[in-house]
Specification:
Layout (H helix, E strand, L loop, with lengths): L3 E2 L2 E10 L8 E2 L11 H11 L6 E3 L9 H11 L3 H18 L8 E13 L2 E11 L3 E9 L2 E9 L7 E6 L8 E6 L9 H7 L1 E3 L3 H21 L6 H17 L2 E3 H8 L3 H17 L7 E3 L2 H7 L6 E4 L3 E4 L7 E5 L5 E5 L6
Antiparallel strand pairs: 1-5, 2-3, 2-5, 4-11, 5-6, 6-9, 7-8, 9-10, 12-13, 14-15, 16-17
Helix pairs in contact: 2-3, 5-6, 5-8, 5-9
């Protein structure tokens, strides 16, 4: 993956975006903010919050040029005078307000900024970014008085965490630019307006995305398909999850046939996985994957969602790392459930 380094903050303007369903309205800024004293803070905020493992690009049906944000950004990149920057940022803010009609969408400030001299691998390009602050942070301000000090609580934007953000680098214009995002609020499907409705972006099909896609498909198959089978015990599902994670940990390249044989082994289970995978890809508009380089960063992130623990009431947790033939589940004469575990040595 290409190394990405952010450039110098050049311009910044703030707009206030309400919730359209509540008729909150939008308040557009008409001039740039003086950011000289906070440039270092804002740059640190971007560096801390944006991760460049998963990258995106703009898309739209039937044509990329019909994507409103893509079109406005292209104008901003082509006409870099101050008047154009202010006007197009206002158009972006107005568009965000128009699609902010879900009841869960919070009002907040939209910052639009430009960056000079960003480094993408060997390329040096300009960038444009947005951030939206939806959750204010309270701080205590110490005020000096004649007789001592007093405290006052004030609200402001967080200088540590972005609620929502987007960075667009002026690279690969014909394919939809190079885009990085942050979305720490409204992660449920019905309120994903930031990525789906506002930006209309899709993941770039790199090794990180491909690894994530297969691991997510596998997790969903084990959860949805085997949960519907009464004969599939918790230990069997945990064993499958562990084998799938172990495959990605121990291989540098993914091969679909090898993966299916090593993880699922039985032909009936392999066929079930293949059927589920095909339907899952179609429903989520994903491309089938047969072979690709495995991303270690994606594996590290995804493996925390592959639970290898059986929780028994409030008394016991059983950690399973393999060997499903070494554990048995049963029911005694009093109706109590039990697990019987076989082992070679105690450590």
């Amino acid at each position: 993956m290409q190394k990405i380094e952010l450039g110098t903050l050049d311009r910044l303007i703030i707009h206030h975006i309400g919730n359209k369903s509540n008729e909150d309205g939008v308040h557009l800024g008409n001039e740039l903010c003086n950011h000289d004293n906070i440039s270092e803070i804002l740059t640190k905020l971007m560096v801390t919050n944006f991760k460049f493992d998963q990258l995106y690009q703009f898309h739209y049906f039937p044509s990329l040029e019909l994507n409103p944000i893509y079109t406005l950004l292209t104008t901003m990149f082509d006409h870099q005078d101050m008047e154009s920057f202010v006007t197009q940022s206002q158009n972006i803010a107005q568009y965000l307000y128009e699609i902010s009609n879900h009841p869960q969408i919070k009002t907040g400030e939209l910052g639009v900024f430009s960056l000079k001299h960003c480094h993408i691998g060997e390329e040096t390009v300009d960038g444009i970014g947005f951030f939206k602050s939806e959750n204010k942070q309270k701080i205590l301000k110490v005020e000096d008085t004649q007789s001592g000090y007093k405290l006052a609580d004030i609200e402001g934007l967080s200088i540590q965490k972005l609620d929502k953000g987007c960075l667009i680098f002026n690279l690969n214009r014909e394919q939809g630019y190079l885009v990085a995002i942050v979305d720490n609020t409204n992660k449920n499907n019905e309120a994903k307006y930031w990525t789906d409705e506002f930006l209309s972006i899709k993941p770039i099909n790199n090794d990180y995305h491909q690894t994530t896609q297969i691991m997510e498909t596998t997790k969903q198959f084990i959860a949805q398909t085997l949960d519907a089978k009464d004969e599939a015990t918790k230990s069997e599902k945990v064993a499958l999850l562990n084998r799938s994670v172990d495959y990605f940990r121990n291989h540098q390249q993914f091969n679909a046939n090898d993966f299916e044989q090593q993880v699922f082994a039985e032909e009936d289970l392999i066929q079930q996985y293949q059927d589920f995978s095909q339907n899952y890809m179609q429903e989520n508009q994903l491309e089938p994957l047969n072979q690709f380089d495995i991303s270690a960063k994606a594996v590290k992130k995804q493996q925390k969602y592959f639970k290898s623990i059986i929780k028994l009431d409030k008394n016991f947790h059983i950690y399973i790392h393999g060997g499903k033939d070494m554990i048995e589940k049963g029911l005694d004469e009093k109706g109590r459930k039990y697990y019987k575990i076989y082992y070679q040595q105690e450590k």
